[in-house]
Amino acid sequence: MEKSNPYEMALEQLDKAVKKIKLDPGVHEILKYPKRTVIVSVPIIMDNGECKVFTGYRVQHHDARGPFKGGVRYHPDVTLEEVKALAMWMTWKCSVMDLPFGGAKGGVVCNPRAMSEGELQRLTRRYTANLIRFIGPETDILAPDVYTNPKTMAWIMDTYSTYVGYCAPGVVTGKPLSIGGSKGRLEATAMGVSFMCREAANLLKIEPKEGRVAVQGYGNVGYYAAKFAREMGFKVVGVSDSSGGIYDPDGLDPDAVQAHKGKAGSVRGYEGSEEITNRELLELECDILIPAALENQITEANADNIKARVVVEGANGPTTPKADEILFEKEIMVVPDILANAGGVTVSYFEWVQDLMSYFWTYEAVMKTLDEKMVAALKDVLETARKNRVDLRTAAYMLAVGRVAETIELRGIFP
Ligand code: NAD
Question: Which residue among 105, 175, 183, 373 is the active-site one?
Answer without folding.
Answer: 105
